Amino acid sequence: MAIDYGVSSYVCTPRDTPRLDAPGAGEHEFLLAINLTCLAVALLGLAAAFAGSRAASEEGSGAPRGRHRFLAVSGLLASAIFVVAILFNTPSAVAVRLCWSAPA
Question: Are 98 and 23 in contact (CB under 8 A)?
């Protein structure tokens, strides 16, 4: 998501002054590709956290089991938050004009 911000800001202000013309057509597709790649990575992280959670719940009893379960559930929560954030960011990368100062 930080790459999206960098690409968007460079497209609108490539040097010291903002662009006055509208950006080309490829920027929206590029931002969409970055968002979909980030979503795939976040979903892989969610799957890995889910697998870790299942493996931690199948372990025997004891102190390491509790720590493993805590880390797995923390990974599930963090991955789910990132998936939701990327899902909310993706439509804006496609629907919103990149440079507000450029004519439509």
Answer: yes
Q: Which of 39, 104, 21, 19 is nearest to 9 (CA)?
A: 19
Classify residue 81 by burial, with Cβ atoms within 10 Å: 0-12, 13-18, 19+: exposed
CA distance 74 to 95: 33
- Cβ atoms of 23 and 9 closer than 8 Å: no
What are the pLDDT digits (tens) for 73-98? 899 999 999 999 989 888 877 776 65
- What pTM, to 2 d.p., does this model score? 0.71
What residues have CB less than 8 Å from 40, skipping those under 6 apart?
A: none
Note whether 90 and 35 are within 8 A (CB): yes
pLDDT per residue over 32-42, tens digit each? 888 899 899 99
